[in-house]
Amino acid sequence: MRAGSRSGRSAGCREITELVTDYLEGALSAERRRCFEAHLAGCAECSVHLEQTQAMIRALGCLGADGIPDRVLRRLCGAFLGSGTPPVAEGGQ
Ligand SMILES: [Zn+2]
Fold first, then answer.
1. Cβ-proximal residues to 68 (8 Å cutoff; 6+ apart), any chain
2. What CA–CA distance (Å, rounded) separates 40 from 81?
3. 4 φ, ψ to 5°?
4. Span 58-91, pLDDT tens digits
5. How far is the CA of 12 from the centre of ligand 1 (A)?
6. Which of 21-25, 40-44, 49-53, 56-60 has the lowest mean pLDDT?
7. Do residues 18 and 50 touch, judged by C-beta distance below 8 A?
8. What are the Putative zinc-finger domain coordinates in residue numbering (predicted)?
9. From CA 57, how far away is CA 62, in angstroms rounded?
């Protein structure tokens, strides 16, 4: 945790982290996309996270990343980045 960092944006880092895959898939609405990019502009950590996720997706590209369910991708994402427990899947189909 870092004290003194500028916060107070509408989107928190946690939310941004969860939106990264949607962002890269172009699944965000224009409004969320703007919010996402605005956060990235002021948050180095989330920028790094985005780059790492992009690199991971590229690495998975040869496996056909399009065929990977979002839930699985997020889990891989969490494992790859060592960012802790993935969010609990909602709904559960
Ligand atoms: Zn952030």
1. 60, 76
2. 17
3. 85, 5
4. 887 755 545 667 777 777 767 767 655 555 556 5
5. 6
6. 56-60
7. no
8. 13-46
9. 9
CA of 40 to the centre of ligand 1 (A): 6
Scan for tokens 């502009």, then name that residue: 41
Name the one residue in this structure whose structure tokens are 């941004």: 16
CA of 44 to the centre of ligand 1 (A): 7
Could you tell me how many residues make up the chain? 93
* Count of alpha carbons within 13 angstroms of residue 51, beta-carbon side: 7
Tokens of 22: 């949607």
- Domains of the chain, earliest start first: 13-81 (1.10.10)
Helices 44-60 and 70-81 cross at an angle (nearest 10°) of 120
